[in-house]
Design brief:
heterodimer; A: about 110 residues; mainly beta; B: mainly beta
Chain lengths: ~110, ~110
């Protein structure tokens, strides 16, 4: 079992739909990152969080430390949101990030 | 634009060869991280340098080495290349020694033929 599991692996939705991507991890962590990787390959850091909830525009990230679970929500989804979304965690006392396998999101117009 | 510059964007080479990937971090960032992304393994952390010193090591092969220079740019050296080394190699930077918000370069696509 991977330390970081994402679901679903693939998600296709219509423009305007509310999107949820889930990330579960098996170790105690000091931080969790959500990254976005566009088809061209570039990676952008969306959020870094260790508790609670963060919001940026139409994106919302939440984390439940007790349940070892985080979600990334996209409201009013748009075709430009089509990308691979990657969850990564930094274990307590660790320096390295461990990555999930990513969720491929496709938003159709 | 993240402010992190990676060169070259693409590299095609043969098995057994040696290549050097270069990364210039965002202005003011002291940490540089190297990651490998392959189709079967996903993203994996290789190594981190902070202000010229190695700070953390991940799944980096002995055939691979890295360094960070006084001007804070970093180089990742890959030697005795194998077909399985074909991957996208990313560099990222952050201001401090711990992995806060990361700023990624656009990556170097390495193809070993």
């Amino acid at each position: 079992k991977n330390e970081v599991e994402q679901s679903p692996q693939n998600l296709t939705a219509q423009e305007g739909e509310f999107i949820t991507i889930n990330c579960s991890y098996s170790v105690g962590i000091s931080a969790l990152h959500w990254l976005q990787q566009h088809p061209g390959g570039g990676i952008v850091s969306l959020f870094m969080l260790s508790s609670g909830k963060k919001k940026h525009g139409r994106l919302i990230a939440t984390i439940n430390i007790q349940e070892k679970h985080s979600s990334l929500h996209i409201t009013a989804s748009h075709p430009r949101d089509s990308a691979v979304y990657i969850c990564a965690v930094r274990g307590q006392g660790a320096q390295k990030l461990v990555f999930g396998q990513g969720t491929r999101l496709t938003i159709n117009p | 634009d993240s402010g992190v510059t990676q060169t070259p964007k693409h590299l095609i080479t043969a098995t057994g060869q040696r290549v050097t990937l270069r990364c210039s971090p965002r202005s003011g960032d002291l940490s540089v991280y190297w990651y490998q992304q392959s189709l079967d393994q996903g993203l994996q952390f290789l190594i981190q340098y902070y202000n010229g010193e190695e700070r953390a090591k991940g799944n980096i092969l002995e055939r691979f080495s890295a360094q960070q220079f006084p001007d804070l740019h970093s180089e990742l050296n890959l030697s005795s290349l194998e077909l399985g080394d074909s991957a996208l190699y990313f560099c990222a930077s952050s201001p401090g020694p711990d992995q806060g918000k990361l700023f990624f370069g656009s990556g170097t696509q390495l193809s070993v033929l």
